[in-house]
From TrEMBL:
Pfam families: OMP_b-brl_2. Keywords: Signal. Residues 1-20 form the signal peptide. InterPro entries: Beta-barrel_OMP_2, OMP/PagP_B-barrel. Residues 19-196 form the Outer membrane protein beta-barrel domain. The keyword Disulfide bond does not apply. Transmembrane segments: none annotated. This is PorT family protein. SUPFAM superfamilies: OMPA-like.
C-alpha cells in the first residue's frame, strides 16, 4: 500500500511537470531533530542531525503546486545509562546514527505568494547505519587499567546496516515562508509509517523514524 502511494505520487509529479505554469529550482539545508518511536524506546532520546539537498517547485495553478525534493538526512536516536558497582561508575551513551537519502513529493497550497503549506509521502533509501558507543568511567576503583578494559569492551563504533531496512516510508507536512529575493524558511515534520527493523526477529518489534526539520534555502 505504501509503495502504491509513492508510485501514484510519482505519476502525479510527472503529469504536473508537463502541465506546469511555472517551475523553480532550489537548494536547502537545515537541522534535524530526529527520534525513533515504537517498541522499547521509552528510555531513548532524540538525536540532532542535519539535512541538505535540492528541490523543484512546480506551480500548476495560482494556489496549488507540487514540490519533489531529494535530501541527505542524518537521523537516529540515542540511549544514556549510568551504572555503579564496586566503586566504579560507568556512564554510557549509545547513538544510533541512521542516514537516508529522502525523496518527499509534496503537494503545496499557497495562501499568499510568500506563505504556503505542504504535505505528502516521503520515501527514504538507507545511506548508512552505525551505532556509536561512548563510555565514561569514574570512581575510587576506576584505575587506568580498569578504565582501559571497560572502554575496550563497551566503546567504539559498529555497523548496524544489516539490521535496518533499506527503504523507509513517511508522511511529511510543513509550512514555508518565501522572501521576494528567493530565500525561504521552512518547518516540517515527517512521521514514520514503516518498521525500520530488519533481520532475524525483526517482526517481533516495530520502530519508526520521526523527524522535525527547520530549513533555510534559495529557489529561482
Amino acid at each position: 500500500m505504501k509503495k502504491q502511494v509513492v508510485l501514484v505520487a510519482i505519476a502525479l509529479f510527472a503529469f504536473t511537470f508537463t502541465n506546469a505554469q511555472d517551475i523553480k529550482f532550489g537548494a536547502k539545508a537545515g537541522v534535524n531533530f530526529a527520534s525513533v518511536g515504537g517498541d522499547f524506546t521509552e528510555d531513548s532520546e532524540g538525536l540532532t542531525g542535519f539535512h541538505i539537498g535540492g528541490l523543484v517547485e512546480i506551480l500548476i495553478s495560482e494556489k496549488f503546486g507540487i514540490q519533489p525534493e531529494i535530501l541527505y538526512s542524518a537521523q537516529g536516536n540515542k540511549f544514556e545509562e549510568t551504572t555503579s558497582d564496586i566503586g566504579i561508575t560507568a556512564k554510557s551513551t549509545s547513538k544510533q546514527k541512521i542516514d537516508y537519502i529522502n525523496i518527499p513529493i509534496l503537494g503545496k497550497y499557497y495562501f499568499t505568494e510568500e506563505f504556503s503549506v505542504e504535505a505528502g509521502p516521503q520515501i527514504g533509501f538507507l545511506a548508512s547505519a552505525n551505532r556509536e558507543n561512548d563510555i565514561e568511567v569514574s570512581g575510587e576503583n576506576a584505575t587506568p587499567e580498569v578504565i582501559a578494559i571497560i572502554e575496550s569492551q563497551s566503546g567504539g563504533e559498529q555497523d548496524i546496516s544489516d539490521s535496518v531496512k533499506g527503504t523507509d516510508f513517511s508522511l511529511a507536512a510543513g509550512a514555508t515562508y518565501r522572501l521576494p529575493m528567493g530565500v525561504f524558511f521552512s518547518a516540517r515534520y515527517a512521521l514514520g509509517l514503516s518498521n525500520i527493523n530488519d533481520g532475524p526477529g525483526s517482526d517481533n518489534f516495530k520502530n519508526q523514524n520521526n523527524v522535525a526539520q527547520l530549513s533555510v534555502g534559495y529557489s529561482f
